[in-house]
Amino acid sequence: MLRLTEKQQEAFDIINSYDRNKSLYFLLYGGSQSAKTSFACYYIQFASIMYPNTTSIICRKQFTDLKATIVQQTFPSMLRLRYGEEAASNPSFIKYNMSPPLSAEFYNGSKIYFIGLEDNSGFEKILGRKASMFLIDEASEVGYKAFSKLTTRLSENNNARKIGFVTMNPTSIFHWPYRLFIEKVNPTDNEPLKNAHFFKSLQMNPKDNLENLPEGYMENLENLSKEERERFLFGNFLTSAEGAVYEDQLKVAQEERRICVLENPIINPHYNLHIALDIGWDDFNSCWCYQVLPEGVKFIFYKEERHVDIVTFLVKIKEKILELNSKWIETICWLPHDATHHWVGSGMTLKNVLTLHSSYSTDKPISYKILEKKGIYEGINACRIIFNKCTFDKEMCKLGIDRLGQYKEYESSGDGVYRRQTKHDDSSHCADAFRYAISSFYFQKPFQEDFRRDRNAIYGFDILNKRTRQNFGYY
To answer: Cα separation of 248 and 466, whole Å?
Structure first.
């Protein structure tokens, strides 16, 4: 017979304390083997039997991982503990449909679907259904986009509580579950949640599940590295992402108070204003607005938006700039090297499209420039070198700073050869736009014979120290 631990009972009581007519989103986070996923599966089974004809969705990033852990282990184990071996293996109590999408159906018509989020076609099929509950397991591997899509499915018209479970071993404070459930802000735009009361979190650690752990397991966790103990033993979110590209640079910027509230005038009227864009559709349109000054780079604001065409996005950037109510010489928009490609359906390049449709006022003209193609790590190294000369507005760049803190690299060995790669996720678009911003002045060499220096422009060598200029060939 199943007996809930004290921490699991606390989770159950939290759910029962909320308004049944409102959707509840519940983050269960903490150390390894603390029964987070077990409780979520237990509750979904319990509610499915309590309320006939309900639909639930249980998912992980990879279907193979989901099948090996939840489908074959956790889910049937909780059934046996709660209802007995005979009921759990009786087709008249529960039967499994092994053809895609894999599902389990109880005797009362309630169904639970098991899906891998990497299977886009299967995920979209499931999204066509209404549901009462969902579970995202190992959310550290999953993006916010999947969570936001699943929230739209909690619309079944029945008496079951509408609950979205999220379970994970904590990663970085820059990851979306921390932003959403702990800081209570929307991870995409940094705006405070309007219904924050219905985003609840509970920390569950191995010490809360001792009665179900094998002897010696806690000692194994205590022998892990300091960072791993924080995550898997104590269940704490880390102040930096594992493999974070700009971790050291951001830490120094915080210590030197270069992440601050910029003094007025925020825009220096004697220099150009720059915009660096990374362009997407399902991915983010990302934009850094900045000025390059003799003393360094001043990042004024960061903005990103998904499912908005680039012309509309640029109009919103213009409106944001004009809100600052300041003067400047000229606005230069820096586009990635592929802006020379023909834009789909237009017969023109992206630069042509923006030039034609730009709605900038005539007294504030905008010029578009295309960056030369540079390697990702060549650009990252330039960013690291310049970072100690960068200042960020604390409020208007907060989302961008968080994204830079979450930008990660890892080692890939698909063909047996280890390679360093950056991870493509929500943070990578912000990081690309940041790299374009630095590239817009860093890689310009003003001493070439055919180069005519712009008296209003600042170049990379202008804000590097003498030794660094010599090392990089600037004399």
So the answer is: 23
